[in-house]
């Protein structure tokens, strides 16, 4: 009897424990609620192929109330539940209400859970026509640079001159441009950075583009800013042949140009620019004349004037010119052991000077001197020095150009012919 009582008590304890296990752990009638389970929108690419898209702002989510045994419900998490809406069933724009499927991980039996309730019962989506196009990027310049600087707007560089926009067709149709604002206020250096843009209509007004996607988020913009200054144009002049600074007037048109460049380049350029070289002791400039010279600037400096050449005018006050044939030749420096076989009988010279003196001077007033110090046997052309023998009477008269005279030397001590 004593053993039977012990066995009966033990059986009672085991039975109570099993009952407690079934009630608290297994409990096939347990319930649990799972909140804000995200819905997977499937076949969105198929929807796009139909020219449609979703514009619903909020991602759909569902709350499920499930019944099952306590063990399974405790193991099941929100992330284990998959809710799928098949978008391929949508064919027209407008508000669409779609059913969704519910699935669980493979570790649970197919009938492990009973859906007691779900909220919402249907997934409601706003469907509109889809559109895409490219729009031009437009730069708005805000503010101004200092007075002695310039913005080279025409040289602005964009890493994207167009932006591709995608979204509701009704919105896409309104957008015509992507506008960027570049602040130039008091800028002295070239601006180069990336900017976010605003999608606008034809009037430049922003469009609500919250549901519009773009192929780029920012556009790189480079705006060249240069310092400007005025540079005086100069001419390098060599006077001679009767032309002096007193009786010669040289004018340049234009006299100055406005240039733009970096601080360093403009500093190196200085305040003047020599456009050419002019030797007035040349037949080319015998009389009043006009000549053009190109305006050549160092690389990196821009000519803002728009004039790429300068016109130089030369005027001689009271000067006249005339040719004279001179036969009075003097040879000096004849090397020893050589004799002169031939000397050109005359040289035609051009003289320029005050008109009164030019009229009076004759060939007898001129001497051609040739230095043969370094001469050798044979024929050659030697530089001729033209001298005015009565220089006191013809002050201001000069010889225009340079001249050579033909001389032939041979061996011997005969001297000059």
Gyration radius from CA atoms, angstroms: 51 Å
| Apparent shape | rod-shaped
Give the low-pLDDT segments.
22-26
* Helix content, binned percent: 10-25%
Mean pLDDT: 91
Report the β-strand fraction as a percent range.
Answer: over 45%
Textual characterization of the structure:
The chain is mostly beta strands. It has six helices and 29 strands. The strands form six sheets. Strands 2, 5, 8, 10, 11, 13 and 14 form a seven-stranded mixed sheet that branches. A hairpin with a 6-residue loop joins strand 26 and strand 27. It is rod-shaped. The relative contact order is 0.08.
What are the salient characteristics of this protein?
6-stranded mixed sheet, 417 residues
Task: Break the fold down into its secondary structure elements and pairings.
Elements lengths: L1 H25 L3 E13 L1 H6 L2 E3 L6 E8 L1 H6 L6 E5 L7 E5 L2 E3 L10 E6 L3 E20 L6 E10 L3 E7 H4 L4 E7 L7 E6 L1 E3 L12 E2 L3 E21 L9 E6 L2 E6 L1 H7 L2 E8 L9 E6 L7 E2 L5 E8 L2 E8 L2 E4 L5 E6 L3 E8 H6 L5 E6 L6 E11 L9 E3 L2 E9 L6
Parallel strand pairs: 1-4, 8-11, 15-18, 23-26
Antiparallel strand pairs: 1-3, 2-8, 3-7, 4-6, 5-8, 8-10, 9-15, 10-14, 11-13, 12-15, 15-17, 16-21, 17-20, 19-21, 22-25, 24-29, 25-28, 26-27, 27-29
């Amino acid at each position: 009897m004593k053993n039977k009582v012990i066995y009966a008590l033990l059986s009672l304890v085991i039975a109570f424990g099993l009952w407690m296990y079934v009630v608290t752990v297994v409990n096939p009638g347990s319930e649990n609620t799972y909140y804000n389970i995200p819905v997977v929108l499937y076949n969105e690419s198929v929807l796009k192929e139909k020219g449609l898209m979703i514009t619903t702002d909020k991602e759909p989510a569902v709350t499920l109330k499930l019944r099952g045994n306590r063990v399974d419900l405790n193991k099941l998490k929100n992330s284990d539940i998959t809710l799928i809406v098949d978008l391929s069933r949508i064919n027209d724009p407008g508000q669409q209400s779609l059913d969704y499927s519910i699935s669980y991980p493979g570790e649970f039996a197919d009938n492990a859970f009973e859906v007691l309730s779900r909220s919402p019962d249907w997934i409601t989506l706003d469907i509109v026509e889809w559109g895409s196009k490219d729009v031009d990027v437009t730069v708005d310049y805000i503010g101004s640079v200092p007075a002695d600087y310039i913005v080279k707007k025409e040289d602005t560089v964009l890493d994207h001159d167009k932006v591709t926009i995608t979204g509701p067709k009704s919105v896409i149709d309104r957008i015509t441009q992507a506008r960027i604002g570049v602040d130039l206020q008091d800028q002295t250096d070239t601006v180069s950075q990336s900017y976010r843009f605003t999608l606008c209509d034809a009037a430049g007004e922003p469009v609500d583009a919250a549901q519009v996607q773009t192929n780029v988020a920012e556009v790189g913009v480079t705006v060249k800013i240069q310092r400007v200054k005025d540079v005086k144009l100069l001419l390098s002049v060599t006077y001679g042949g009767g032309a002096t600074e007193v009786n010669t007037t040289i004018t340049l048109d234009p006299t100055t140009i406005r240039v733009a460049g970096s601080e360093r380049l403009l500093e190196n350029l200085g305040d003047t620019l020599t456009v050419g070289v002019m030797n007035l002791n040349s037949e080319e400039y015998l009389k009043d004349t006009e000549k053009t010279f190109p305006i050549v600037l160092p690389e990196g400096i821009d000519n803002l004037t728009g004039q790429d050449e300068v016109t130089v005018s030369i005027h001689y006050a009271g000067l006249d010119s005339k040719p004279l044939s001179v036969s009075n030749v003097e040879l000096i420096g004849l090397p020893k052991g050589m004799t002169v076989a031939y000397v050109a009988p005359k040289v035609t010279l051009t003289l320029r000077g005050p008109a009164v003196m030019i009229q009076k001077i004759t060939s007898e007033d001129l001497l051609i001197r040739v230095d043969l110090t370094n001469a050798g046997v044979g024929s050659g052309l030697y530089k001729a020095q033209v001298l005015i023998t009565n220089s006191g009477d013809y002050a201001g008269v000069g010889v225009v150009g340079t001249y050579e005279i033909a001389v032939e030397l041979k061996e011997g001590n005969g001297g000059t012919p």
